[in-house]
Amino acid sequence: MFIGGPNFTEPTLLFETQELQIEAPNWSLDGKTLYLNGNGLLWALDVSTPEAGLRPVRYDGLPELNNDHVLDPDGDHIFLSANDGHIYRAALTGGAVERVSPEDGKWHFLHGVSPDGKRLAYVELKEFGDPGKLAVWPVTGGEVTRPDIGARHIDGPEWSPDGEWIYFNTEGFTTKSGHAQLARINDTTGSIERLATSETVDWFPHLSPDNCFAAYISFPPGTLGHPGNLNVDVVVVSLDDWATPMQRYPLFGGQGTINVNSWSPDSTRFAFVAYPID
Question: Which Pfam families match (predicted)?
Answer without folding.
Answer: PD40
